[in-house]
Amino acid sequence: MATKINPLQFIQQVRAEISKVVWPSRRETTITTIMVFVMATIAAIFFFIVDKIIQFGLTGLLDIFG
Fold first, then answer.
1. What is the DSSP string of 14-49?
2. 7-52 pLDDT, tens per residue?
3. So where are the chain's domains?
C-alpha cells in the first residue's frame, strides 16, 4: 500500500524536484527547433526521391510485362 503524504509535504517535494530541472536557453531552443525543421525537410526530400525511384522502377516493369 502507498503511504499517505501530507499535501504540503508533497508540494515541497515537487518544488524541490522542479528546481533541479535544467531549462534550455532561448538560443538552445531556437537552434533545436531549426534543426528539427531542417532534418524533417531532409527526410521529406529523401523519401520523395526514394518514392520516385520506386515509381520509375514499377512503371518500367509494368510497361515491360503489362
1. HHHHHHT--PPPHHHHHHHHHHHHHHHHHHHHHHHH
2. 899 899 999 999 999 999 999 999 999 999 999 999 999 999 999 9
3. 23-65
